[in-house]
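User: Okay, second chain of the day. Same drill as before: sequence in, structure tokens out.
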Amino acid sequence: MDDLKAKYLEQIAGAGDESALEAIRVAAVGKKGEVSLKMRELGKMTPEERQVAGPALNALKDEINSALAAKKAGLADAALDARLRDEWLDVTLPVRPTREGSLHPISQVQEEITAIFAELGFSVAEGPRIDTDWYNFDALNIPGHHPARAEMDTFYMHRAEGDERPPHVLRTHTSPVQIRSMEKMGAPIRIICPGGVYRADYDQTHTPMFHQVEGLALDKNISMANLKWVLEEFVKSFFEVDDVELRFRASHFPFTEPSAEVDIRCSWQDGTLKIGEGDDWMEILGSGMVHPKVIAAGGIDPDVYQGFAFGIGIDRLAMLKYGIPDLRAFFDSDLRWLRHYGFRSLDMPALHGGLSR
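Assistant: Same drill. Structure tokens below.
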């Protein structure tokens, strides 16, 4: 054993790299190594011989393993020292030109919207993009025969034949988040629900996936006057103008009653959009007082609480504010487009510091 010990400790000390060290380990204490073979011979010894040879072999094995570990650590330290000597960087050299990452216009506008409504006391609520048709349609008072529930308008998830679970859809609006929030938070409540939605449509102003933000406010004494004030404050802040004029046109949405489309006064002189002036009107959102059936579906008593809701297309707001002509470009992943329309990622929108910079 003394000869084995001297032999392998000498080899370990002289190993020049980790591969040589591994070869020594296999030869000494590997499954077929010399020390391992010696330990197998213990079974052939008398009890008295085993009492002497067993501890001696275990001590030899431990000593070789300790030497291997120490040598491996020493080789790693030597390799690091060599790298530190050979690899260096002159920090006085000028940096390479790099392009700073840009924030996508949709993300920018969503943050602007969140900043505005946060000042108005609204919190942000989120929900799943894949939801049951009950949350997406039934709870929102959208009947089974409504055209929006047809497969030519809505993306339905595949179901195996005989599957009796409720069908799931890619949400067509963020209104299901309103129902989930009412179930979870009760009333009174003031939330906005931004996020991606899906509909089967594709042209210059429509894509299969787009983004919406919907707002909901419920309390015991909310009226259309509150809705009008909130929307006016939002438009003034978002478009950064001192005065706006909104026009409410009677409309129909299954989830609100009464319902209204909202137009904003503007001008298109010389191809430039100007908000708050001129003789033209442009539709920007839909709104109304929440239908009692929708309030009840959210687990709230419609005889006690009432409120308003509205829905705005985030992509459309981005196009109007920043002069982006084609909605499809939002999803083309063109870096040149993003460098032109993108925003500095560290400039957080705030009403006191400015929304867009």
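The first helix runs from residue 2 to 14.

User: Thanks, on to the next one.
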